[in-house]
Amino acid sequence: MAHETIHTDGTQDPMNVTNPEHAQRHIVTPLQYTYVFGTLLLFTGITIGVAYIDLKWANPVIALGIACFQATIGILFFMHVAYQSRLIKITIGVGFFLFLVLVTMTMGDYVSRAWGMW
Amino acid sequence: MDNALASTGLTTQPAPDPHPHETAVHAEHEHVALPQHRHHFETEEQQREAGSFGMWLFLVTEIMFFGGMFFAYLLYRNWYYPAFAAASSQLSVPLGGTNTAILITSGFCMALGVWAAEVRRRKMLVVTLILTTLFGLAFLGIKYDEYHEKYELHHIPGNNFNVSQFVNPAAYGIKEEPLAPDMAQKTQIFFFLYFAMTGMHAVHLIIGIGLLFWLTWRAHRGDFSSGYVAPIENFGLYWHFIDIVWLFLFPLLYLINRHPLH
Amino acid sequence: MSAAIGNTIVSLPDQSTAQIPRHNYINNEHGLLSWLLTSDHKRIAILYLISITFFFFIGGAFAGLIRLELLTPQPDLVSSDTYNKFFTMHGIIMIFLFLVPSVPATLGNFLIPIMLGAKDLAFPKINLLSWYLYMIGGTLTLTALVLGGVDTGWTFTTPLSTHYLNTHVITAATAIFVAGFSSIFTGLNFIVTIHRMRCPGMTWFRMPLFVWAHYAASLLMVLGTPVLAIALTLVALERLFGIGVFDPTKGGDPLLFQHLFWFYSHPAVYIMILPGMGVISEVISTFSRKRIFGYTAVAFSSVAIALFGFFVWEHHMFIMGVSSYSALVFSLLTMLVAVPSAIKIFNWTFTLQKGSITFETPMLYAFGFMGLFTIGGLTGIFLGSLGMDIHLTETYFIVAHFHFVMVGGMLMAFLAGIHFWWPKMTGRMYPESLSKLAAVTTFIGFNLTFLPQFILGYLGMPRRYHAYPPEFQVLNVLSTAGATVLGFGYMLPMLYLAWSLKYGAIAGNNPWQATGLEWQIQSPPLMENFIETPVMDHEAYDYEWLANKTRNEVTTVG
Amino acid sequence: MGLSPVLWQFLVKWLHSSSLFPTEASGISPYVDALYFFLVAMTVFGTALVAALLLAFSIRYRREKSPVATHVEGSTLLEATWTIIPLAIFLVAFVWGALLYFRIYNPPANAMNIYVVGKQWMWKAEHPGGQHEINALHVPMGQPVQLTMISQDVFHSLSIPDFRIKREVIPGRYSTVWFEATQPGTYHLFCTQYCGTQHSGMVGEVTVLTPEDYEKWLQQSTSGMSLAQNGERLFSSMGCNSCHNGTAAARGPSLAGVYGSKLTLTDGSQILVDDAYLRDTILNPSKHVTAGFAPIMPTYQGQMSEDGLIDLVEFIKNMQSNYRVQQTLVTAESGEAAPTTPPPGTTETGKP
Q1: Are C23 and B21 in contact (CB under 8 A)?
Q2: For D112-220, which CATH class?
Q3: Cα–Cα distance, B219 to B114 (Å, whole number)
């Protein structure tokens, strides 16, 4: 994908290896935004449609899957993370990871309560 | 220049503008206007990246904030699935779907706004910001309508919460399995979570709209038409984050079980 | 530099000629407004210092009243209601208004930018905002107090707090909510600053351990506090609308609150202790003229604590009917989180080896910290070990344990830091002999207060008891006696530090001959800290570098 | 001098009550104390070690002695040592503690059951024979006793330090703890979870009696009706028997001998019927409907006190046949209680 780039610094370092905290600045084009916009709308439609079909346990899984997909592209392009420094990618990762810790470890308690004491 | 932060940079580096202290103080007190460069940053690049990094950290705290409620939802949905299914079927998918579309659109406008700022088009920026605001308001309007309906049905959790619609749906012309009384009581928990989560989301929207007015005015003044994008960009992050929260809320709250099992 | 080999490293400029630098952050501007609207991290630090001291003494007053009531087994001093409000206020104020912001908001605020060679924190205005948030939180707490108090205990246990009390729970919850955001913003500011504002050459492994510790603590603040916020919001909503999310009769689960609350409140104890550990690293290194033994180990152990800190919250709920399987898991993780602290202790100890040790006041406090924190940490193992926890939890043993960590650990570290950096913050020295006296008094008083409580705990005296069986009286008397000594020990610094503001000896740039960047600039520092951006060309705690530097008399006095 | 009497009193008190450990009055106490001593030893050793090192270094390397510090970077070996050794000790504490935990919380099969209801601010013990006590608990010596506890309002926590046991008493859920008293006497019973104004007043006395004395006590303090008999009354007055009567036309499942059996629910899942399950089905019937029945049972949430629920649970537990249920069904019209109540103090009701 070709998009114009403004180099505010001399170092050409797209993988930001030498300085993981810095990424050169990209401008996402309206065209890309439109693609993303379309996709988001499309998948909203899909998620509603699927909800009316009985797929037993698969329903919530699909719904969440779609939501996660939408969130991902939203974060990557609307929020420019695709072009951000590794630092910011990691930060976001940590956020979601910790949310998962909260959910899984607490749920672990509730689920295993039913097992009683061996 | 940016190597000021590079772990390897050893080159000495005089501060770009060593103010006399008095002016330094003023530089600190005046609003982030042109020259947007704050004296305590080495470079403008450094300032921009610090800004967006800070914004992201803030959004991470938001994740944890909503996380608590998402977990409560997960727990009670597993405990009282029938109640959740029945209650969720009382929410209007058309309205919810429309709202989702509206919010996505407003997000799209915001994104265009960021682009407009990047390429320094003042008029376009103002227009997109206004559109963003309008879509945001539309969302709130529809939300208000939904809340109002719930209010009239006595589905607001609390003392005058009324479960009769779930115990005896037929009487209300609803084609749903009736819930046993004790399970019907649990719909209250669903509605609480519904109001808490969407309410918290709405609060964030309202704050966002407040900021939008301010930004629009400043954009109109031309603050962001000279390469100074940070405020627009960071607000964009906030706005998109709200959208994304909604993208989860919508299926979780509206679409639990739309195919009554027979 | 005092050439003769004395028992001190203090080297002050010639008092007859020396004077406080003409330009510095204190006299840079005048008038109350210039303080209330400042965005200079140093001034904000001072604002914090004043306000947390204020709240510390309020919280301390409540502690005094509690101990006074417990002097006798009978509930004779105050009514049960009042007593409950006392310990609730003591808890809320001490934890949310003193311990959490204590070191980070004062010393951290003051020093982190300087230690990194930056002019200020990344977001000066947000820094000021977080002070105002803190003050709003504090005011709300006092409001709750004035309106008639709140008696939930600082843990807000549901359904007690939601359905069975008619005190000002919501006010207090709001107060904590707001204060919480203050610490979120502080943490956020630190993280961004540490990532983004390091001066040239200041690599991660050249940062002082003080900064590492604050980095770890900030992570906890930013990631943990929002969960507390939402938990308290739910409590408030439950009270307002009775929506039953924590109410068993409506199908809610009270344990859910416990999970959310402790998910923050366990990491919170690391928020409280980590910055203190940072202070200790600086002090120990300076007064043994040696680089911290195993710098990287200490640095990483801070991060490890921050990481593990998020995986152990359920050990506050072992007897609360959680699943025994997850109890096992959390108990195991609790044992793991204890290890990094042990690592730190031993590294500090071995820093002394082959050092050249002097015993100024900060060092004495640091020694106090090492001893008391070791006890506090090890007694934590009692409570992490499932079977033992059953008997010990909710008794005075747990009270003694966390006071050893929080007061014996954090407060000692705080005082160590205040004394250590007092010359830098004010430009004047504190009176050495008096402060030594204070340090010793505090140490004795502390042990007298809290050692008996371990025994009380094992004897089974429950915490938060207004009246207790007479056979527990002797130990309680001892504890109260100790509390009196302790109180005296804390009064002293207040007085002589205030005195030193006017009469203290001029400190000069580097009274301790310490290596940190903050000691290479004038004290009190300039508005902008540095005249020109420094370049870090040596490791942290490099005393040879300092020796050369002083030999060549290259100093940057403004 | 005026202080001396006070001082004297203080010393006397000190001598009288200078115990460092509570008495070991239960079977588990020695095991708990063993772990405690181990941990104390660990603490003392650890602290002594650190203190000794600090002292030694402070003397050996004080500035007068060693004017110049020699630079030491660190030592991986040492780091490893003080990582692994503490970890090892902590893991011992973990395993030991875990074993103890399950020992304390898993009641033996032959434990006798006593119900405890916590409410602001009192303890109410209910013996199967119908003996009720407030802020007191009488138990036989040398006999495992299981407490099935529930709170009517907020979290409480039942703690008997001399038995080394403690367990949260939770609203809306049974929690259990057991002990075997080993020596007669009276011991403290505390509420250790802060539960409101009179928290410190929520204390009681546990009296351990020899089995004979215990029997005597049971005889004296009987209330005439066993829990099961109260339960039986409720069962008819609440109209449970109109559905759960084991007749062919019954709309509810027969409850005879249901306790301890495995039920199959409408969703096909299997569930073991215990006290907690019985209580929950009365309050949230539709959460688990027995296979082959419709979810028509109304909820009794808010209509029955925890005591009432305990009575019912106890009744259903001991219900061997539907004979007496059908009896009560018949006599229910004539408004009187069921005939022939067996002697109190025993837990059996209706003989087939």
Answers
A1: yes
A2: mainly beta
A3: 11
pTM: 0.90
Which is nearest to C192 in space by CA: B48, A82, B12, A83?
B48
**Degrees (nearest 5) of the Cα angle B151, B154, B155?**
80
Q: Looking at the predicted structure, is the pLDDT value of residue C3 above 70?
A: no
ipTM of the complex in this document: 0.89
Amino acid, res. B110: M
Q: Which residues of B touch C234 (CB under 8 A)?
A: 68-69, 72, 196
Distance from CA of C88 to the nearest CA of D (A): 11
Q: How far apart are CA C223 and CA C310, in angstroms?
A: 9
In angstroms, what separates the C-alpha of C259 from chain A's closest C-alpha? 7
Chain D residues touching C470 at Cβ < 8 A? 17
Neighbours of C397 (CB within 10 A): 25
B56-254: CATH topology is Four Helix Bundle (Hemerythrin (Met), subunit A) (1.20.120)
Please give the biggest Cα pair distance in chain A. 65
Cα C86 to Cα C150: distance, rounded to the nearest angstrom: 9
CA distance D295 to chain B (A): 6
C512's tokens = 């301790």
Sorted by sequence, the CB contacts under 8 Å of residue D201 that are 6+ apart come out as: C80, C467, D121
Chain B residue with minimum CA distance to A34: B108
In the stretch 30-49 of chain D, residues with CB closer than 8 A to chain C read: 31-32, 35-36, 39, 42-43, 46-47
What residue type is assigned to position B60 of the chain?
V
Structure-token match 């259990």, residue found: D176
- The answer to whether the Cβ–Cβ distance between D93 and C466 falls below 8 Å is no
> Which residue is closest to C325 within chain A, CA to CA?
A112
H helix or E strand, kind and range, residue D126: strand D122-126
* Chain A nearest-CA residue for C188: A91
A residues 92-111 lying closer than 8 A (beta carbon) to C? 94-95, 98, 101-102, 105-106, 108-111
pLDDT of residue D15: 62
Residue whose C-alpha is closest to residue D217's, from D206, D225, D209, D205 = D209
So where are chain B's domains?
56-254
Assign a CATH topology to domain D227-333.
Answer: Cytochrome Bc1 Complex; Chain D, domain 2 (1.10.760)
Tens of pLDDT, residue by residue over C43-64, are 999 999 999 999 999 999 999 9
By Cβ distance, the residue of B40, B54, B80 closest to C188 is: B54
Task: Give the angle C510-C513-C516 at the CA atoms, nearest 5°.
Answer: 75
